[in-house]
Amino acid sequence: xxxxxxxxxxxxxxxxxxxxxxxxxxxxxxxxxxxxxxxxxxxxxxxxxxxxxxxxxxxxxxxxxxxxxxxxxxxxxxxxxxxxxxxxxxxxxxxxxxxxxxxxxxxxxxxxxxxxxxxxxxxxxxxxxxxxxxxxxxxxxxxxxxxxxxxxxxxxxxxxxxxxxxxxxxxxxxxxxxxxxxxxxxxxxxxxxxxxxxxxxxxxxxxxxxxxxxxxxxxxxxxxxxxxxxxxxxxxxxxxxxxxxxxxxxxxxxxxxxxxxxxxxxxxxxxxxxxxxxxxxxxxxxxxxxxxxxxxxxxxxxxxxxxxxxxxxxxxxxxxxxxxxxxxxxxxxxxxxxxxxxxxxxxxxxxxxxxxxxxxxxxxxxxxxxxxxxxxxxxxxxxxxxxxxxxxxxxxxxxxxxxxxxxxxxxxxxxxxxxxxxxxxxxxxxxxxxxxxxxxxxxxxxxxxxxxxxxxxxxxxxxxxxxxxxxxxxxxxxxxxxxxxxxxxxxxxxxxxxxxxxxxxxxxxxxxxxxxxxxxxxxxxxxxxxxxxxxxxxxxxxxxxxxxxxxxxxxxxxxxxxxxxxxxxxxxxxxxxxxxxxxxxxxxxxxxxxxxxxxxxxxxxxxxxxxxxxxxxxxxxxxxxxxxxxxxxxxxxxxxxxxxxxxxxxxxxxx
Length: 655
Description:
Layout: E1 4-9, H1 25-34, E2 39-45, H2 68-78, E3 85-88, H3 93-98, H4 131-145, E4 151-154, H5 164-172, H6 180-203, E5 211-214, H7 223-226, E6 232-235, H8 243-254, E7 261-266, H9 281-293, E8 297-303, H10 312-328, E9 336-337, E10 341-344, H11 362-373, E11 378-381, E12 392-395, H12 403-414, E13 418-422, E14 439-444, E15 450-454, E16 466-468, E17 473-477, E18 482-490, E19 507-519, E20 522-525, H13 529-536, H14 539-553, E21 559-561, E22 567-574, E23 579-586, E24 590-592, E25 596-598, E26 604-605, E27 608-613, E28 621-624, E29 632-635, E30 638-643, E31 646-647, E32 649-654
Parallel strand pairs: 1-2, 1-8, 2-3, 3-4, 4-5, 6-7, 7-8, 10-11, 10-12, 12-13, 13-20
Antiparallel strand pairs: 9-22, 14-17, 15-16, 15-18, 18-19, 19-20, 21-27, 22-23, 23-32, 24-25, 26-31, 27-30, 28-32, 29-30
Helix pairs in contact: 1-2, 1-10, 4-6, 8-11, 9-10, 11-13, 13-14
């Protein structure tokens, strides 16, 4: 996969004429050179359903007079730029109006994405209908006739559908169309069949050609779905609804799957389909740096004007970021992450986000925020991961491991690993802890919120009774367990007949049992601290998690740094070059408008101290790409050095 990609949207209505009239191969090449682009995804078919080339399997856009796709591929290849080809798979508005019976339907016979033909927008197809045959012919035509460097199929995934085709199939299989589990069973089978047919359509002419099925998110814990692809493209536009939390969470899971992957952001201020929207160049600099720091290649979304003319301002913007990526690519390929901690993701344990468009549960988001802000080295893992790679595994808030996973965790613990469990995690259905965490489970707390009084330093805060907004669990200390913090209850819950002050009742300042305990297998925090941090962001939540992790890692912690909390640090290994690469990033997103996170100002930080353990016999430390030598000291299995001031992103090679 190429490092510097552009995903060139071209969803163009038949109500617009002059399609491609201002396309120029020379101008197309000029934009790609200006943008330092070495791969660009170009369009065969858009959401409106039109082809951008002569077609027997589809219909060329009524106002396009030449083979735009062919000319784009020819121009790009002439300057060494790859051209994966985009085909809208799930949406085809032209065919939707001709064959509304091929569309996905819910239990009330409504279509999706848009529930009416009197509203602007697209309607999604069911792959259990004759539409799949139409789509496969379109795929075959492109692969046979064009020098595509890959195929990108969009708007696909496991769907819930009760169209007439699905109802007939379910009834024929003696299943119930009114039963959600049966409908999901069919959705899984339909998607598997679609991916098989798509792969066959590609391999008929070009076996092994890269193929990616885009659903906007890689579902954690569904390795089977991920491996329908030859590689992964992690769609994650921070300003487009994904936010800056999503990409680190997604990338650190993708890194464990054995597939190449890229991070996909956009040049837009908001989201796809925005003409004339631009983010600040510093935002793209940071987002591309964030991708390569997490072991990913990079893709930036753009949208071509109907005229076919590339927007030079866009490629000047992209080029500012990609020029920096180009200079450091040799330190970013064929890397593996170095991680002390495995975060066992909630999504991989059968707990899904609340809304259709939510991509992460609050527990996963809060855990990743704390780990990033504490500068821990971590992966996001599922139940099939190799647990032996880690020193600590986190079970965030609501994970009750199955018997098989509990046995796997027990083996991890026997080999010297530790567990950090919070909230309801690690508590079996019979009410007993699955591991020795120094606690005996009693019941959910009757008070919410309640309070915690730690037995350890909470600097920069002095010791006090700290409010815990999330639901807590009442525990007792197990024999041999260590109490690290105590619970305190309020005088009463806030109700109509007794309340105090503006928000909640104060602590009665009496011990009400343990709040955090430690046993031989790890530490237990009796609140859902990670979801609480995602929604409230209280400093004490971060302090108690970081104290617990530092206690469990002890002298095994691979990295310690004084990078400010908003900074991000990753460490990767390039085995082929016998070196490690440290990434330090710093930017501070702010809210603009309504829930739009933006990055504009980048401030210099540093010098930053770094202490690393367990890297072996280090010969040299230097800044990348400048090559400037960084003095370092050795002590036993640890090296220490100081990174000079930097802006946005600094890489350090440790040979």
